Amino acid sequence: MGVNRRAWLLFVLVSVLWGIPYFLIKIAIDDLSPMLVVAGRCAIAAAALLPVAALRGSLPALRGRLPVTGLLALVHIVGPFLLITYGEQHISSSLTGILIAIEPVVIALLMAGSEPITNLRLAGLVAGFAGVVILVGLDVSGDRWGLIGAGMVLLAALSYAYATKLVQQHVADVPPDALTAATTTISTLVLIPFALFHLPPAGSVGADSWLALGGLGVLCTALAMLAFYRLIGLAGSNKAGLVTYVNPVVAALLGVALLHEPVGVGTVAGFLLIVAGCWLSTRPARSPAEIPVNAV
User: Fold this and answer.
1) Looking at the whole model, is its pTM more than 0.85?
2) Which of 119, 210, 281, 290 could form a disulfide with 108 if both were Cys (CB 3.0 to 4.6 A apart)?
3) EamA domain: from which residue to which, for each copy (predicted)?
4) CB count, 10 Å around CB of 124?
């Protein structure tokens, strides 16, 4: 199989794997608390990733990096995972996926110090945030809890954007398998004590919720991270970063088709503005470390 074909297969795989978390979260929180869902998916991912990193011998690269790795775990996993999962108690999975797509626009804003904001990029920033205003204004206007849920998801996008900058500045040289294994393990250790207070009564959780949690841990966290970094190696960071434009479409389609979530003209208009904003605000091509690192 040629490199291009493998890259395309990985691109499709990552786009799907990062498009389905919002759908799976919606199913899991029917029976499980958001805290337990996040702790569970982190624990499952860590259990899958640690043996991979150990077999590859990449864990020693983390020596002396515990403080920054711990901070990355908080802003890349613990914070955004909790914000998204709690936020989905109040807004649809399709809206969640679309709002997260604002991340590249936020990254462009955070990188303004090193990359001046040109007129083209400014137009992208304006378009992206206009899309958010349309989405929030039309989908959750007048719904206090809906606004809170949307705000949580937007804070998660901001956290992901900061995580990108953190990786660029401090841990870009650490092997991805070691870094993801470490961040998911640290996240698990942070979250488990809190999750123990949210255990469900025996027999109260349906099989679909457990399966959704397993999918979040194995597929959407562990496998998606490894596939994404492999895609970077084959196709380059700029092309790999295009998954940011595709996974919200997957999230919206799943929400509409399987959860019967409504998608109106305002939702489509907001999404198109965000995509246009992402494309414009990331021109010209960014350096390898400036791609989104969202692992929802």
Assistant:
1) no
2) 281
3) 8-136, 148-282
4) 24
